[in-house]
Each structure stands twice: as structure tokens, then as C-alpha cells.
Amino acid sequence: MANILEVKDVHVSFLEERRTIFDKRNRIEVLKGINMTIGEGEIVGLVGESGCGKSTLAKVILGLIKPDSGEVIHGSVHPQMIFQDPYSSLNPSKTVRFILEEPLKNMTDAGPEERLKKATERLKQAGLDEKYLTHKPSELSGGQRQRVCIAESLMMDPKLLIADEPVSALDVTIQAQILKLLDDLQENLGLSILFISHDLRVVYQLCDRVMVMRGGLIVEEGEIDEVYRNPKHEYTKQLLIASGII
Ligand SMILES: Nc1ncnc2c1ncn2[C@@H]1O[C@H](COP(=O)(O)OP(=O)(O)OP(=O)(O)O)[C@@H](O)[C@H]1O
Ligand SMILES: [Mg+2]
Q: Which end of the chain is more exposed for a tag (fewer CB within 10 A), N or C?
């Protein structure tokens, strides 16, 4: 399997917040040497406690944060992000059609007809009828909004999606539908997905492989069944026990 992404020895630090103007600010290392790969068509889970650096790693992969050192090598051109909160990540004053067409307007020379055709196709692939093209996000449910976010993320034909807690703001039945959609998209479009989640059960349903992160390091990584049945690291065991899986 070819790799769609390689992350090599990535370090990221942030300046500590200053409590008074006299405080000296130290640098805090948040990613302490991350190595990982994602293969073509693979869904990889990234789990770990709040603050361990998952979203920071996602931002490094998307080029939104420049690492202090290390390398991110992409095997595809347009990695895309799906966020946790479908309420705040869509412009409320625009129609779904406008939102979907915008990346094509900004980054391609596709004409109006082609843009509409693609917006319609992606919306359907995300499981929404084309009648929603004329709706605004405020007229949609949370699950429908997340579908619009997913359709939007597909407009530039990405090969890699990074989904940062994409279902944790949704209720359980809607969660299951969105997970099924991601799984179908992986299969139909051959996408690779980095799936970031606190929920080890959800990760088990969706992912082929899992990486366990703690304190800025990946402490364990492997095929999902292998890691869940036979965790090697004490911290992985703790997470599995806390989730009631073992
Ligand atoms: N721009 C920033 N400036 C300073 N510190 C930051 C910045 N972004 C993140 N941090 C710190 O880096 C650490 C890792 O944050 P990050 O958002 O990557 O965690 P996370 O694993 O995604 O957590 P969660 O599961 O809660 O989303 C945290 O301690 C956070 O406070
Ligand atoms: Mg996060």
C-alpha cells in the first residue's frame, strides 16, 4: 500500500501564556517527535486524552501550524478537514449551494454549470437531496449540517480527509449515520481518513488502524483488532478499561 501521508519526527511548541506582564514565557512542547503514516484508502483512528496534541497534529498535517522541526510529506494535493462543530463551521448567511461552490470559485476555473453539477453530485454523495442546495445552514439539523460540511470537504476531490471529532456534537443515531457515510465515502471514493476521537468504541467501528497518543507522543499504534485485543502500553489498557471495552 502506498502512503498518502508521512509525518516524520514532528516537534511543535507553543509559548506559555503569561499570567502577569512580568512573567517570563517558557516554550511548552506539545508534539514531541511524532512519526506516523496513512496508507491509501486507510481509515486511521487517533485517540488520547484531552490536551495530548491531537488537534495540533491535525493542524500540522493541514499546514496550519508550522512545526519547529520534522517533516510532513503529502502523497495528495488537497487534504481537507471536517470539524467537530457543524454549527460554527458553516457560514449561516449563505446557501448550501454557495458554500459548496465557493472552493471551486476560489481555486479552479470551473464555470457556473460545472460548479452546480459538482455541488449537486457531492451533496448527494453526502446523503442529502439536491433540494437542500437552496437552504441555509440555519434551516438544517445538526446531522444535515455535518453532511454539508462533508460535501464541502469533497469539492476539491481530496484523497485525504482529517476528521477532528466529527460526530461528538451529534446525538447517537445521527452519529451512526455519519460514521456509515464516512465508511461509504472511503469505499466509493477510495479516500484515506484520519479520524480523531475520544470515543474508543466509535474508533473501533470505523477504523482499520489506531494510534494512541499521550503527552505529545504516539505511545502505541497497530491494527485495530490487535491493539484492542492485546494492548501493549499501560495507557492503552487504561483507555480501553475506561471505555468498558476490556
Ligand atoms: N495556539 C496555541 N497556543 C498555545 N497553546 C496551545 C495552542 N494550541 C494548543 N495549545 C496547547 O497544546 C496542547 C494540545 O492541544 P490540542 O488542541 O492539540 O489537544 P487535543 O488532543 O486536540 O485535545 P482535545 O481532545 O481536548 O481536543 C494543549 O495543552 C493546548 O492548551
Ligand atoms: Mg482537539
A: N
